[in-house]
Amino acid sequence: MHSHLLAALDDGVKTHQEAITIVQQFQQLGYTRLITTPHIMSDTYRNTPEGILSKLEELKSELKLAGIAMQIEAAAEYYLDETVLSLLDSDAQLLTFAGTHFLFETNFYSEPYQLNDFIFKSLTKGYKPILAHPERYAYMTIEKAEELYHRGVLLQINSLSLIGFYGKPIQKLAQKLIEQKWVHVLGSDCHNLLQVQLQTEIIKDKYYRKALDLPLLNNKL
């Protein structure tokens, strides 16, 4: 869950061939199902559910032609801004996991002033919001993560965080979230071939194995 494998939609892969190579790497690691999640960000990546699903069908066709048996689906990674709040105010359907869960991210530096309103609107609309990589936000503390956890926000950590890919402070916060058993979803957040290749290192990490012992939602969505 959580990757950027639809060609030329965001800062992930640029071509179908690049995506196919990455999918093959995941297959060799034992994965049988992938849910890729392009950014929807109003000022940078103006993707729509229709455009994402159309690009997904292209990738499926390319995988079939290449003889690669991988179940691949798509949701989205929504950036918390006025656009997604407007979507929640309207009757527009978000691109979700299993009909109710959806992935969102915030800016990396400061807690968005709309965060509480966003959580409230999401829950009252019947959605279950999943915060992408909370360990990577500069404003995030273990206390803030606990508050979000108890307010009904599900937490998804990046497996790359566990090997220090984004730096030591991020690694330590990811480890603490696992120790507290506040992690609901593991994601690769894979954008390129280097990041999928690092997955072979991640599976040796003791915190990764601890995370696998949690009641993760990965195989339930």
Gap between N and C termini: 10 Å
* CATH H-tier superfamily: Metal-dependent hydrolases
Q: What is the number of strand segments?
A: 8
> How confident is the prediction overall: mean pLDDT?
96
Determine Rg (CA atoms, Å): 17 Å
β-strand percent reads 5-15%
**CATH class wording:** Alpha Beta
What strand order characterises the main sheet?
Answer: 2-4-5-6-7-8
Domain module tally: 1
The CATH topology comes to TIM Barrel
Shape: globular
Structural class: alpha/beta
Q: H/E order of the elements?
A: HEEHEEHEHEHEHEHHH
Residue share in helix = 25-40%
Question: Can you count the helices?
Answer: 9
Low-confidence spans:
none
Architecture in CATH?
A: Alpha-Beta Barrel
Largest sheet: 6 strands, parallel
Describe this structure in words.
- This protein has 221 residues and is of the alpha/beta class.
- It has one domain (16-212): TIM Barrel, CATH 3.20.20.
- Helices cover 38% and strands 14% of the residues.
- It has 9 helices and 8 strands.
- The protein has helices spanning 16-28, 49-65, 82-89, 115-124, 142-150, 168-179, 193-197, 199-202, 206-212, and strands spanning 33-36, 39-40, 71-74, 77-79, 101-105, 128-132, 154-158, 185-187.
- The strands form 2 sheets. Strands 2-4-5-6-7-8 form a 6-stranded parallel β-sheet. A two-stranded parallel ribbon has the order 1-3.
- Helix 1 packs across helix 2.
- The radius of gyration is 17 Å and the shape is globular.
